[in-house]
Every structure is written in structure tokens, then in C-alpha cells.
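anyone seen this seq b4? input:
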Amino acid sequence: MHIFLLEDDDAIAIGLKYSLENEGYQVTVARTVKDAMKAISENAFLFYILDLTLPDGSGYDVCKKIKTMGDYPVIFLTVLDDEVNVVMGLDLGADDYITKPFRVKELLARMKSVLRRYSKETMDGIIRYRELEVNTNTAKVYKRGEEIELTAMEYRLLLILLNNKGIVLSRNNLLENIWDVDGNFVNDNTLTVYVKRLRNKIEDAPMCPAYIKTVRGKGYIVEHES
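predicted toks r here
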């Protein structure tokens, strides 16, 4: 499982990374909100551990971004003085928090508890929808067992839609939560191109899409399976 850790204290970050990797996890570390936003836009993680207080902002902002991409597990790290503010983080969708200083065994126990509340689909990193299978550990997409080559932006768009099944995502909503690999925001015309290219790759009949449907005047939707 690939874990994302946001922590600006080098001693804590290095120690946690070492301990988690010894438990068999893959760990990516960021030390600022800016670096975190870039990392989560370019990679697929299955678990997020976020410090609350960063030199350039708050873990709240990163949590908000994560939750727009899907229902992924989030644990906050907080100093005792921040504890009363964790309620805000829980309201944003975070699953738990742990107060510094803490023991790694305590964090691991909290992580396992949170993971038990998530479906097997989330834990094994595989998202299945009709004839599509997305392996979020390897960022690869398959249809009927054959790999579909997607660009980073096409993959990102597909992941956002699949993680919001049954919800109409407006063009503005997608534009707010998707950007290119250089960190530049995507404009409306470019979004249209990405949707068209993605449909050409995953749909049997792109002109009559079965996966990514257009809701006229509202946006796009991946419907719940009937």
C-alpha cells in the first residue's frame, strides 16, 4: 500500500517513513502544503497521514483536496494545542487523529482500525467498474483484461469520475480539481479534449458513451452500476 505522509518535522518524517516501510508500506513524504498538492495530483495514494500545521498552510487544505478525489482514509497528526481544532478536520472527512508525541505502534493500530472501515476495493487498490479495472497501486487501467494506455491527465480524470460514481460533476467542479502535470490549471476547452480522448480509449462507442455520460447543461457522470 502506498501511503502519503505530510510532515514538516524532519525527525518525525524520517522516523515515520522508516517505521512504516519496515511494516511493508511504500511511503512518499512532503514537507509543505505546496509540495503535498503537487504530489497528490501526480500520484495515487491509498492512505494519507497529514500534519495540521505546516510552514505554508494547513493540513485542512490538503484534506479538502484529497476528499474531492475520492473517499480515501485520512489521519491527522496534531500537537496537543491543536487538539480542539481537530473537530474541523473530522468535519472535512478525516477519519481519526493522533496527538504528538506518539508511539508508532499506536499509529499503526489507528491505521488498521480506519482501514477496517473501508471496503476491500479501497484497501487492495483496485477499482472495478463494469469491464474496467483500475489498479491505483500501479496507476494502470485495464478493460477486459487488456491494458489501456492513458496519459497522466486522462488517468486523473477517470479516477475522479470513478471515485464519484452517481454524482454529476459539473465542468467547473472538474476544472477546480484537475490540473496538468506542470501544475497549470486546465481550461474549459482543454477539459473537453481530455473527456473526448478518454472516451475514445475506454468506450466501445465513444459517440454513445456507456461509461462517462454527459448530463446536458450540468456536466458528466459515471452512473452507479445497475
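The chain has a mean pLDDT of 82. The two ends are 30 Å apart (CA to CA). kinda curious what u guys think
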